[in-house]
Amino acid sequence: MEQSFGRESLGDRLFTILNYVILSLFLITVLYPLIYILSASISDPSAVISGKVWLWPVGFSLDGYSAVFEHRLIWSGFRNSIYYTVFGTLINVVMTIMAAYPLARKDFYGRNLIMMLFVFTTMFSGGLIPSYLLVKDLGMLNSVWAMVLPGALSVWNVIITRTYFQSTIPDELLEAAQLDGCNDFSFVWRMVLPLSGPIIAVISLYYAVGHWNQFFSALIYLKKQSLYPLQIILRDILIQNDVDAMMLTDVDQAAKREALRQLLKFSLIVVSTFPLLVVYPFVQKYFVKGVMIGSLKG
Amino acid sequence: MEALKPLSRNEKVQKGIAARLVKMRKVWQLYVLIALPVLYIIIFKYVPMYGAQIAFKDFVVSKGIWDSQWVGLKHFIRFFNSYEFGRLMKNTLLISLYSLIAGFPFPIILALSLNMVRNRFFKKSVQMVTYAPHFISVVVMVGIVFELLDPRHGVVNMILQALGMDPINFLGSPGLFKSIYVWSGIWQSVGFSCIIYLAALSGIDPSLHEAAVVDGANKWRRIWHIDIPGIMPVAIILLILNTGSMLEIGYEKVLLMQNPLNIRTSEIIDTYVYKVGLLSQAMNYSYSAAIGLFKSVIGFVLIYSVNKIAQKTNETSLW
């Protein structure tokens, strides 16, 4: 944190002004597209398509949002995404702790070997096709398992969690517990877990965001529309411009339909990003903490 | 005496093994804990590595991996001689070099600037806003880029037209693909990437700044002589490590941004592997796996050697 040291010189004042200008430029550059999309999503469709909207909303209409909520695939996408995120993150966190705790213990014989086994996979992989064939051979295509099992563990998160365990759980605690006849299972359950609140928050968030934003696994492993997560539905609408024709039948004019289609996209971007951005200010510090713990090693 | 020697050495070894077994038995519950993660790593990471041998075979689904016919380097040679090879390598390397170089200074500038701000509210606001795009999914990110750059009603083209210029079909111009990819990536990641530099800056001893002020150094000089040298090690290590993962481009984003008009400059190794192996009608599993394996091997050599360099220069490493 910068402190004030007496009166500022001309150079320093110039610096402060320039500094605020630079930061404002960063702020505006990042903020502008977000505001534009929010404004466009609640503007009048004809104003959007004729380019009258450039910063603040022009006119007012919630047609885009009502189109979003009438779209049946968007609902099933939301439902599937929430399911994959909750279920997948649960598996992730349990697996990560099961891997990280033994690796954090100095008296765990073979930990270097297992660590090498883990770390090697971050540098070399069999590639897309062999992984796909494996999932196929395991009979997991077109199932929830294809969405949660292939990524059940992230080695980076194991390393972060291990570092956390090593730096926050003192050896004396383990020794004292062992003297009291506590075995490793109950030590993990009664000591390690209650002390791991922050790290569980950090890795849960990392995993959850990963699941929520995951799109490629669904693209290659799922063929059934009823299983599609939100990101696939979003791709069809936002990228491939594939708006369900059924829902737009009541709009007869082609121009109007085109306008509504655009409005739907803006609204969809807002709706799909909204849950994340609402939670985000509250959990931001955990993400930052994750970066910090991660940077200790690596 | 001489006859006793080997026996005692033997005994020592036996004792060592016995002691180790006792130690292992004492922590047997730890082995139970880690069994499932190890099983996961073996099945989902090492089995595909075993499966990668189809790159050397003519893989037929009905025959399986082991029984398919061995063809040696046929698929690799076909790839190296193909028209696509040069183009894929060029695009992959150019895109990653471009993002590496263009993306390098901005998080540092942001961190240095933020570190000099005294107004806490302003500082927190800038941080909160610039971190936020990190969480936007790749699909939505590309959707936003498409909306902003749309040739007919995108706001960028509206501005261009207001300035009297002709609208540009950004996504349809092969020459612009890499820039759009890289700069939208910087937009999304600059805030989050600056966190690590902010951490490094907060680790600089404040007495250095105090001493510099006493010596009459202004803020410019303090940034130049204290802050920048202070974060240099972090910057260099990050640059080195990023060079190591050069072949790892955000292929999901590239795939989403591709269209027939820009494919000449946008096709990279990963997207090509996906298309040849999983998207095309004639399932070219082996050919596609060979291209993927080629990339994995080069990537491994890169990351391994880069980590060795990092170890030497900074005594910090990945493991």
TrEMBL record, chain A:
Residues spanning the membrane? 20-42, 54-75, 82-101, 113-135, 144-165, 187-209, 263-283
Keywords carried by this UniProt record: Cell membrane, Membrane, Transmembrane, Transmembrane helix, Transport
Give start and end of each ABC transmembrane type-1 domain: 78-281
Q: Which SUPFAM superfamilies match?
A: MetI-like
Lineage, top-rank taxon, reads Bacteria
Question: Where found in the cell?
Answer: Cell membrane
Pfam (any one): BPD_transp_1
Q: Which GO terms describe its biological process?
A: transmembrane transport
The entry's cellular-component GO terms read: plasma membrane
Q: Which residues form a coiled coil?
A: none
Annotated membrane topology is: Multi-pass membrane protein
Q: Which family does it belong to?
A: Belongs to the binding-protein-dependent transport system permease family.
The name of this protein is Carbohydrate ABC transporter permease
Protein source organism: Paenibacillus roseus
